[in-house]
């Protein structure tokens, strides 16, 4: 079974992420993981030290038979940082990739796909004909991982283990973006039923503690799970736009959406889009269709950021890149073999070293 260049795995209810269009097709889904490719997509090539440190490739594959998949590609053309244009990935696995590490990645992603599919089936059953209520539940759940990531990172700082300022900045910006998605759904009446609020809040509480545990054990697995959730959100909004686009174009945009997407302070809006140069995406909000279009595109940006996070030390704040790209040292750079990324990484290093 060969690994493909796209990350996919959540069929019909799950997405793979690669470039901007949504292309339905029926085939076997596969998941590949390449630290080198994502590094080039999220760090400038001027950082020679990082390129030398990440000259290996890790791949893993998850196959599902006879499933329709939707490939999430970039939902619009992005102005990327110099030297960050995507490159074609090689078809062969690097000799430095261990079979043990590949097996671990495959197991982690397989568990994530199973858990995400299970939750999606429940939501499909409960919210088949209640669109805004479903969106309210999705947005309540979707912002939880960023709280969990920041909690663990703050704990590590308290213990004096390591500091990652860029990770904290980006994850807070992601939670800020998801909070405004939630406010939009509330203004549209998605939280009007007590049952919906009860369900969303209790799922979110369980999800928080689960994500904290996953992030301590294996940050890579926690980030991939969040990518799966964001991918489903992208697919959900994309289908909604195709089904109700004409109707949405005749409806006014909520005030909170206009303030968020067209306000004067767009620092946090730029901050969570780690593959984009700040100030290159400025939405125009004229109706409700534009609102959901931008929410969908936000989810695509979250997916790309979560993919970048799955490679240790590859995440940079977009503003930090502009400020200190020429400097040799950065606030979040992780030296090679400086520490274990999580419990799974510690065990792997103890076995392979």
UniProtKB/TrEMBL annotation:
Primary localization class, coarse: membrane
Transmembrane segment boundaries: 135-156, 198-217
Pfam families to which the protein is assigned, alphabetical: AOX (PF01786)
Catalysis performed (reactions): 2 a ubiquinol + O2 = 2 a ubiquinone + 2 H2O
Cofactor: Fe cation
CC cofactor note: Binds 2 iron ions per subunit.
Annotated protein name in UniProt: Ubiquinol oxidase
Organism, scientific name: Capsella rubella
